[in-house]
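>> received
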Amino acid sequence: MKVLASSLSILPGPASPHYNFLNSLVIIPSLLSHRPNKPLLSLSSQRVSALAPMDSVQSSSKKELPAGLDAVMEEEYASQSVLLKEFTNISTIDKAWTFKSSVGSQAMFSVSHPNLLANKRRKNILSSQISKGTDGSVSFQWAPFPIEITGASTMVPSPSGSKLLVVRNSEDESPTQFEIWGPSQLEKEVRVPQSVHGSVYCDGWFEGISWNSDESLIAYVAEEPAPSKPTFGDLGYKKGGSTDKDSSSWKGEGDWEEDWGETYAGKRQPALFVVNVNSGEVHAVGGIGRSLSVGQVVWAPLNEGMHQYLVFVGWPSDSRKLGIKYCYNRACALYAVRAPTYKSEAKLLQPGGDATDDVTAFNLTRGISSAFFPRFSPDGKFLVFLSAKTSIDTWAHCATNSLHRFEWPTDDKFTSVKLVEVVPVVMCPKDGCFPGLYSLSMLSNPWLSDGYTLILPSIWCSMQVILSINVLSGNVSRITPHNSNYSWNLLTLDGNNVIAVSSSPVNVPELKYGSCAGEASSGATWSWLDVSSPIFKCPDQVTSLLSALQFSIMKIPLKCVPENLPEGAKKPIEAIFVSSNSKSHDVCQPLIVMLHGGPHSVSPSSYSRSMAFLASTGYSLLIVNYR
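>> returned
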C-alpha cells in the first residue's frame, strides 16, 4: 500500500543506490519510522531514493524478502499498512439536505469512504431527525444503519422534499437512467438512450440539475449525443453506417474533437435537456449553438404573461478548450433561453414556444467577462451570481471573486438588465479584515428566510470560513468563530440555521449546528453546537495518534522586498505547520514540505487523511501557502 503526494520534499536523508523510483513521489509506509537503522527518503528533481540500512543487506532470512527489507521492516510495513487503512476508513460527507416535517426537521446525508481494494468510493445515505429544545439545545436522532447506494451518480431532492431524483450514468453504451422516488416507492423510471444524450454531468462545475416550481419538469446538463462513427466491413466503408454488432465489421473513431481536459476525458460538448417527470419525455433545449458549452442551469421564476425561461452558464468553446478544471480564468456568461413548452403532459410544442418565435439564448451579463453560480432570490425578484473577472483580467487561474445581482425582468425583454456590484473585488485587505471572496461552491438554496441574506463558504487566508452576505446592502459577516484556525465546510441550511463540518490538520471532521441570536444580516453573533454523529467514527489508535499532534498557522515575513511591488505582494505569506506536541529538544523530526498546485490556489487548514497519516508516523509537515 502506498501514499502518493503531488509535491513534497523530505529531509533529511542521503542519496542511496538501494531504491530508485524515477519521476515518482512515493512514500512507502514501512519507511516512515525513525529508528537509527531505518531508511529515510530524499527527493531530487529526478528521483526519490531511500537508504536501506547496510546491515539489512548483509543479513539473511529464511524466507525470501524484497531487496533491502529485513523481517523487522516487513513487519512494520504490514502494521503501517493497517494504520493507513484505519485513517482512510474515516467517512466524508459529500452532500446534505434538510426537509421540514411535522415534528421539526429531517436531515439526509450522502456519505462516502474509500474502498481501497476496488479503487472506488462506497456511498451510503444516513438520515437523522433534528429536535430543538426550549433551552436552545439541538439533538440529532440518527437512523440505526446507513443505506448503501450503488450505481447512483447523483441524487437531487425536489423543492418540496416529496420526490427524489436519482441519476444513474452507465459505464458503457447503455441508456442513462432517471429514477423518481416518492416517500415509499419508485414512482417513475426513464431510460434515455445514447442517441438522445450521453452521461449526465455530475462534476460540480458544469453540473446543473434543477426542478421547476411545480416539480413536473427537470432541467439538466448532459453530454450531447456522439456523432455516428464510420463503419467498415469486408468490402470497406459501409455507407450509412451500421448499428449491428458483429465480428465482420468494426467502427472507426471518426473526426477528432477536443475534450475539456483534466478530469473531463471524453467530455466534449455539455448540452441542456429537460425531462417531463410525468410523461418521461426528454427534449434538448433549442436556441443554444455548439459554440457554447453549458452548465449550472436553474429555472427562472414564472411570471404571469411571460414564457418559462432557463438560466444557465455558457463557456465559449468554438476555439481551443485547453481544459477547465481549476481554470476560473475562462470567460463565461449567464444566458436565458426559453424552456420547452408543454401543451399537455404528452404533447410537446416547438422548443421555446411556437415555431415562429426567436428562441436564441440571450446573454444576460454582457457588461462583465465572467458570471457563474446563478441563484434566484426566494421571491424571484432578483438574480445573484459570482464573477471571476479578476482572473479573466490577470489570467491568474484563481483570484478574488466579486458578487453581483440584477432584477429579473417582468417581461420578455432582457435588454434593460442592470448589474449591481454587491461585494467588490478586494485588492489589498487590511490585516485581520475581510480578504475578499474566494468561493468555489454555492448551495442550490443558500438563502435565509428574510430572502436577502446569502450564506456562502469562502477561503480566508489559510482557512475556509462561512460568510453571511446581505445582498441588498453588501454587508459581509464571518459567521464561523473568529478565534478558531479550523476550516469549515458548509453542508446545508435548516431554516435560519446552518449545518456544517469543522476540522483541522490534526482533528477529524466534526458536525456543527449554527444558530443566529439576532438578525443575521446585521452582523449578529452566531453560536455553534457540537453534534454527536456516527459518521466520523474514529478508531482509538487514530484518535490517540492525532491527540499527540498540534498545528499552527505561521506568518512568514518577506525579506528584501522591492519597493515597486504592489502592497498586497509585500505582505507575509502563510504556512501551516504540523508537529508533535511533545517534541524533544535533542531530536530533530524529519520535515515534509507540502506544495499545493494551481499555482493560484491554497491548502486550507482542514483534515486530510494522507497528511494526518504522515504526521502520525513522526513527520513534521510544512504546508506552504505561497502566493
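>> Residues 71-88 form the longest helix (18 residues).
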